Amino acid sequence: MNALSANVPEGWAAPADKTSQTDDERIEDVMPLPPPEHLIRFFPVRGTPVEELVSSTRRRIRDIMRGNDDRLLVIMGPCSIHDPVAAVDYARKLKAQRDKYADTLEIVMRVYFEKPRTTVGWKGLINDPYLDESFRIDEGLRIARQLLLEIGRLGLPAGSEFLDVISPQYIGDLISWGAIGARTTESQVHRELASGISAPIGFKNGTDGNIKIATDAIQSASRPHHFLSVHKNGQVAIVETRGNADCHVILRGGKTPNYDASSVGAACAELGKAGLPASLMVDCSHANSSKQHQKQIDVARDVADQLAGGSRQVFGVMVESHLSAGAQKFSAGKDDPAKLAYGQSITDAASAGTIHWRCWACSAPRWRPGADGAERLGETTGLHHTSLSNKVSACKRE
Q: Does the structure show a pLDDT above 60 at 358?
């Protein structure tokens, strides 16, 4: 018995990594993860067509943000990814739309692996990939990287929210556009993270509709930072960033929607006062749709009208859609994942919804920019407000 163990109370045994009685008092277990470089080595992107896709998409998004490309950026996809097979199925359909409207739209698939929770709940594919509270984060990271590669091989770029500050080391090289959510826009660590992310980043306004926290976040992320993170080899490290000049605001609504021309104008005025580019993205979901997925089409129509009127304040939109409309209730660890309906969201109705694929397939052309502002849907497809409404109504009845 050594001098240290002689002072340990009888019956108390510390894990090997526990430094004292006051250390890790509420930690049940610690499971080491393979370092990012291991996963990247098994699923490489360097020298592949996917690498060029990600790089070129980032450049095109920057050009759209800066007004050098008059196409509209469209981030479209499921609220969250829980079924990789359905995600690839959706990606194939979205790729067809991307190709069809490539001259007017830059379509990027929304591929969200992490979900912020107001209290508790399923936190996303990376955190609990098997939907059973086994929390195989190691498997979640692998599945996420594999899925991003598979989607990229289809020729479809991916966008995702950065919620955890370590997971970008595992998948960040496959992301063409990123978002910081309404609950984390004000977080210093997420602003620091954004300052070093290689992709353009959108900051959402606060859940109360506050725009200033997003403009503050853009200013912060544009500057260099030093902070703690991990190296690709897994070692804890001090990271020095250059700052990210490709950040923008996402209007997602607050206590009231903020997608209308007046709200967009007011937000752009705030951006101008802060010395930032007076253009932004509109989220058609969340508070802008009053968390009712059917209303996303109304938001899209309003944005299309703004574009048709010659507005250049909106350079992009975000849409939550999936293979099937609506959402299904599911509690990880309680419900059977095998009984889930295919291609339908499992995010609760309070935080997300989905909209029928065909509704968006027929509405996408309405966002077509023209030489003098924007062309209406009827000019490219023969569909007008009435026929579009009928299409949407038909989808709702199914």
A: no
